[in-house]
Amino acid sequence: MRPAPIALTCGDPSGVGPEIAVKAWAELGAQLPFFLIGDPAHLPAGAQANVIHDPAEAERAAASGLPVLAHDFPAPAQPGLPAPENARAVIEVIARGVNLVRSGAASALTTNPINKKVLKDGAAFPHPGHTEYLAALAGVERVVMMLACDELRVVPTTIHIGLAEVPAALTKPLLSDTLRITHAALRRDFGIDNPRIAVTGLNPHAGEGGVMGREEIEVIVPVLEALRAEGLALIGPLSADTMFHAAARKGYDAAVAMYHDQALIPIKTIDFAGGVNVTLGLPFIRTSPDHGTAFDIAGQGRAEATSLVAALKLADRMARARQAA
């Protein structure tokens, strides 16, 4: 049985979201049904689109155009020129997508990029970002960001903080929660019964026995030992400079790194265009393309849908894994 269609939010309609949604439909068609939540008037001129009134209509509508579940916006969308007056509607679309996926009308949520400054300027958006808003809607305290491509899945333990702040932020509870959430998601959403997780050290050469730092000895190793005792298959702490080449990647299903660039540099080097952002720890599936609104190229027909297509395909695979479980 095919899962319900995937809900795709419009993101900031002045960015590349509308055009990459159309390009994704052109590539996927009815083979992977999804529907866009947004204003049909914001789509590129001449786009093939079918307005639907219920997500159940998406598969039929996708045979001849991009299915669009219409949502009213107060202002037109001018590519490259964000309109703060549309901010409230952008936020409403995200909440609507969450409601649809939680009700079962959609099998997963894929989100097009937003611009946080526009949302703050236009609607006093109180959240640091997209992910935090989704967590608030779901009533979840802690979520985990995974970046995934065909060759690598990687999770940063600390994310958008300065490098100087990482050692203090890297606590045992944070690392333990990150590993538990990652392990659970690999089992539930990726169908891996006994996932192997490689864990980086924080310091060069994983601290080299304390010579280059003690975070491995005082934080990372105790957490790994405690979780191994519970049955998690954890490898490390490993020196980050030796664990992302092709042969090393065959030894694990996902890597957990200690900070943002330690995780994202390898995956963006391996597959810059096809990486997918996945939020783990939510009660529903959420994926997104690994790029921003790209106001500088919006409306010019230059935006690639590679990452969005990958995000939709991964959402579909995750939905099928949950359905099978």
Automatic annotation (TrEMBL):
Entries under PANTHER family matching the protein: 4-HYDROXYTHREONINE-4-PHOSPHATE DEHYDROGENASE, D-THREONATE 4-PHOSPHATE DEHYDROGENASE
Similarity comment text for this entry: Belongs to the PdxA family.
Annotated GO CC locations: cytoplasm
UniProt pathway annotation: Cofactor biosynthesis; pyridoxine 5'-phosphate biosynthesis; pyridoxine 5'-phosphate from D-erythrose 4-phosphate: step 4/5
Compartments (UniProt record): Cytoplasm
Protein name as it appears in the record: 4-hydroxythreonine-4-phosphate dehydrogenase
NCBIfam families: pdxA (TIGR00557), PRK05312.1 (NF003699)
Other remarks on this protein: The active site is located at the dimer interface.
Cofactor (UniProt): Zn(2+); Mg(2+); Co(2+)
Oligomeric and partner information: Homodimer.
GO MF terms held by the record: 4-hydroxythreonine-4-phosphate dehydrogenase activity; cobalt ion binding; magnesium ion binding; NAD binding; zinc ion binding
Textual note on the cofactor: Binds 1 divalent metal cation per subunit. Can use ions such as Zn(2+), Mg(2+) or Co(2+).
UniProt keyword annotation of Oxidoreductase present: yes
The keyword Transcription regulation is annotated on this UniProt entry: no
Enzyme Commission numbers on file: 1.1.1.262
Catalysed reactions, as listed in the record: 4-(phosphooxy)-L-threonine + NAD(+) = 3-amino-2-oxopropyl phosphate + CO2 + NADH
Positions of a divalent metal cation binding: 160, 205, 260
Chain's gene name: pdxA
